[in-house]
Amino acid sequence: MKKRECDEERELYVKINMEGVLIGRKVNLSAFNNYQQLSHAVDQLFSKKDSSDLNRQYTLVYEDTEGDKVLVGDVPWEMFVSTVKRLHVLKTFHISSLSPRKRGQE
What we know:
The chain has five helices and five strands; from the N terminus they run αββααββαβα. By secondary structure, the chain is an alpha+beta fold. It has one domain: Roll (Ubiquitin-like (UB roll)). The protein has a five-stranded mixed beta sheet with strand order 2-1-5-3-4. Belongs to the Aux/IAA family.
């Protein structure tokens, strides 16, 4: 029984939403060791046929514990896992709104 409780404590589920998709999903970040594995899993969650097409059209961002939206990969993996609150898959042309210059003006 204790082993199962320890396994559950190590699981870190976060919600992930894709722009244009009404139903969100959850991913267990503790199942991944790096950004590449996470990105591949997100491709599989949301792609219908060609995941390489998904990579060109969408970018993965996350909301941290302070409510800021940050590009996935901008901080070391361990820091990301400890601060991520929610994941978002946004259309690539919307990413320019996340630039540090614009965020500082808001």
